[in-house]
Structures are given as C-alpha cells and as structure tokens.
Amino acid sequence: MDSFELNKIVLALLLTVLLVIGINGLASTIFVEEEPGTNAFPIETEVEEVATIVEEAAPEGPPLAELLALASVEKGLSVFKKCKICHTVDNGGKNMIGPNLWDIVGRSKGSVDGFSYSDAMKETGGDWTYEDLDGFLKKPGDFLAKTKMKFAGLKKPADRAAVISLMRSFSDAPVDLPAVAAPEMDAPETEVPVENSEEVSEEVSEEVPEE
Length: 211
Ligand code: HEC
Known about the structure:
- The protein is an all-alpha fold.
- The chain folds into 2 domains: 1-59; 64-169, Cytochrome Bc1 Complex, Chain D, domain 2 (Orthogonal Bundle), CATH 1.10.760.
- Helix content is 57%, strand content 0%.
- It is built from 8 helices and no strands.
- Helix 5 packs across helix 7.
- Heme C binds at residues 82-83, 85-87, 97-99, 101, 104, 109-112, 117-118, 120-121, 128, 133, 137, 147-151, 154, 163.
C-alpha cells in the first residue's frame, strides 16, 4: 500500500466520520424541533388525569374562601356565558328564564319581584351566602330538589368560585369576601438574619446595570 492510497483511505474515513456527525446533527435538530409538537398532547392528558385523580382523592380541595380570593374576573366571565342565556345581571335587568341576578350575594332567596319561582325556592328561605351559592351551583337539583333552574351544575370548585366572585361584583355594595384562614406559621427561625439580608441586597444592587 503506497502513501497515496493510505491518504485516500484516511480521507474516506474522515469524510465518513464527518458525514455521520453531520447526519446526527441534522437528525437531532429535526428531532428537537418536532419534540414539543409530538409531546404536547400526551403531556396535557397526563396532567389532566393527575388533576382528576387529585380531585377524586381529595374532594374537599382548597376551601371556598381561598378559591374566591384567587378567582379572576376573566374566568368568571367565561363561566358566566353558561348563565347568560337565562339570567341578566344589570341593576333592574329583566327576568328571563331565570331571575335577574343583580346583588345576588346576600340577597334573600327567591325574592325578585315579578319572577315566578318554584315552590321549592319560595319556601327555602334565608339569604344567598357564599356557601349556599356554591352548593346550589354545584348541582342545583341536589341543593334544592324541584328547583326550576334546569342546569346541570358546575363541577369544578374553581369555576363556581370564579362565577360567584363575578356575581359579587354586580352590586353597589359587594358583600365582604369570607376570610381566608391564615396559613400555619413556622417558628421564627425561618426569618432571614439581618446580616444576610444586607449582603443579598448589596449583591443585587451591584448587578443592576447603571444607566
Ligand atoms: C336554563 C336556564 C338557567 C341557566 C342556564 C342558569 N339558571 Fe340560574 N336560575 C334559573 C331559574 C329558572 C331559576 C329559578 C329557580 C327556582 O325558582 O327554583 C334560577 C335561579 C338562580 C339563582 C337564585 C336566584 C334567586 O333570586 O334566588 C341563582 C343564584 C342562579 N340561578 C345563578 C345561576 C348561575 C350562576 C348560572 C350559571 C352558572 C345559572 N344560574 C344558570 C335558570 C337558569
């Protein structure tokens, strides 16, 4: 074998190696690009399954007061789309299939003039507390047998909290939200010693770019 032939072999090997690296590089680029697309669906279902399991395992979930405190108007409006076909919410709004819901939180049950409530609603008595609204909206027929409100209910506690929080705002004087139980505090050890916190703030201020 002369050196020219050897050179050719070495060159061929080198090219092969380069080619393999190139293909690998290319393949991994394609793979990485496709990854989010192909995985998005399975991940989502998994998360949903886990959420269902969690909900089933702990049907209680976070207390209503907490959910109400976290509820967003945006979500409330989206849930309320289901109610709009039967209810108005503006002050003095007309009754439709269901009664007007202005000022519903704290209002006495079945009390809108000119709306013909079911006997069940007329007889139940009391005011609409947050708890009662939550119970009613979960499954109207369970909360109040023979209610005229033909609505399956809102299964998700967060959906109910969002819509209740929204209804609360339809009032000139919204009823106070229920107090959220304070989280249990640990021993004061968790407080950052003054010395350290000074160091931290110094470090942070050094990092801030000067303008
Ligand atoms: C298919 C029509 C319909 C839908 C949808 C509907 N409701 Fe009702 N709702 C009614 C009727 C009818 C009543 C009266 C019930 C009765 O008299 O038993 C009522 C009663 C109520 C009451 C009690 C009102 C009062 O004056 O005591 C509240 C609160 C309420 N609905 C909230 C909601 C919310 C919130 C939604 C959406 C998540 C909703 N409803 C969806 C028809 C509906």
